[in-house]
Specification:
Elements lengths: L2 H13 L21 H5 L39 E6 L2 H12 L5 H9 L3 H7 L3 E4 L4 H7 L3 H10 L6 E2 L3 E3 L11 H8 L3 E3 L10 E9 L3 H12 L4 E9 L1
Parallel strand pairs: 1-7, 2-3, 2-6, 6-7
Antiparallel strand pairs: 4-5
Length: 242
């Protein structure tokens, strides 16, 4: 953001003070543009124990079989997925605003908060981040790809990360929102391909990035493209799970 834009934003903040996207109260003098300290603390986080494949939280230590019903039938092409937040309450509300209410800027504070999670930082550090792509028609109508904005934000905050949009979505699909796991897998099958002219380096680690992981079908489909292109180490990450 340039100096004039900074000055304009400062003047606007004096006239129309921002409210926290979670608490709806005026922002404090914290590090975020759209979250107060109380708002950031209210975001429901995922902590261990969690599934070592899809990252879904286990609510309490499990005895005996610790398989995860959320990814048991997926057989994902990614090795491990990790998420910071549960996609419920204020996180779900913010994600909805990002995707459907033309508020991509709200992703920046979620990214900054997520980047303080040590497990998440370790998971991403030193990797090539590959954002889940939108179909060209959807990208044009929305005006942005939230997954790409998330990946770029993470790369700026986590050491050794870079962003390479290696995968493209060349077939439009229906919204995944109302589909079950089997329907989601079928919906995204053969919808993605490697960008023309792009290659992968089998010596590097790739992490596919999305805003939310629900069944893992989309992340699996993108990871499969990278595997087919020769990638030997592919993981996944999303800001939220649920």
């Amino acid at each position: 953001m340039g100096l004039l834009a900074d000055l304009d934003r400062g003047i606007l903040d004096l006239i129309f003070p921002r409210d926290c996207a979670v608490t709806q109260l005026p922002l404090d003098a914290g590090p975020f543009l759209h979250l107060s300290a109380a708002g950031a603390a209210a975001l429901p986080r995922i902590t261990d124990p969690r599934c070592l494949t899809c990252g879904h939280p286990f609510d309490g230590w499990l005895e005996g079989d610790r398989s995860c019903p959320h990814c048991a039938e997926l057989h994902p092409a990614f090795g491990r997925a990790l998420c910071v937040f549960r996609a419920k309450g204020p996180v779900r509300h913010i994600l909805h605003r990002i995707k459907y209410e033309r508020s991509p800027y709200l992703a920046d504070d979620l990214v900054a908060t997520a980047a303080t999670d040590e497990a998440f930082r370790r998971h991403l550090a030193g990797s090539i981040l590959v954002p889940v792509p939108l179909h060209a028609d959807k990208a044009w109508s929305r005006g942005y790809n939230q997954s790409e904005r998330i990946a770029v934000g993470l790369a700026g905050l986590i050491p050794g990360c870079s962003v390479h949009p290696l995968v493209e979505k060349y077939r439009p699909t229906e919204s995944q929102t109302r589909l079950d796991r089997t329907q989601r897998l079928r919906n995204v099958a053969k919808a993605f391909r490697l960008q023309r002219g792009q290659t992968v380096d089998p010596r590097r680690r790739y992490v596919v990035i999305d805003d939310v992981l629900t069944t893992g079908a989309t992340l699996h489909a993108c990871a499969a493209i990278l595997r087919a292109a020769g990638a030997t180490s592919v993981d996944a990450a999303a800001l939220a799970h649920g």
